[in-house]
Amino acid sequence: MTRLTGRALRLTVFVGESDTWHHKPLYSEIVHRAHAAGLAGASVFRGVEGFGASSLIHTSRLLSLSEDLPVAVVIVDTEPRVRAFLPQLDELVTEGLVTLDDCEVILPQSRLRSTGGTPTTGREDTPGETDAKGKRSL
């Protein structure tokens, strides 16, 4: 199981909900490629309202329902792993915005107690690690 704590890089990709890659949603292709690249995690967030370079406001309000709401794909991993993934985005994202932010990943104290550990820096791969009750730790 992969565990990431300490310094990390957050990659955020802002695209439109209707943007596609080979007839699939673009946000889905980004998530699947991040997974295939072995990155620590990726999530997609659908926006309620927003605008981009076109200056056209997209909103989910009923009276002005948009079919192209803003979507943010957020990926977090170590800096070298995120930067190694950027060339794939060059191929996929032709419109939109890509940002990078330094961040710190922490585990809730309850998870630290359940694993019997303390925070570590960097990425650890610990397949099959179990606690005293035989449960797998994350």
Automatic annotation (TrEMBL):
It holds the Pfam family DUF190. InterPro entries: N-reg_PII-like_a/b (IPR011322), N-reg_PII/ATP_PRibTrfase_C (IPR015867), UPF0166 (IPR003793). Residues 122-138 have a biased composition (Basic and acidic residues). Residues 111-138 are annotated as: Disordered. Gene3D superfamilies: 3.30.70.120. Residues 111-121 have a biased composition (Polar residues). It comes from the Bacteria. Belongs to the UPF0166 family. This is UPF0166 protein. It comes from Streptomyces azureus.
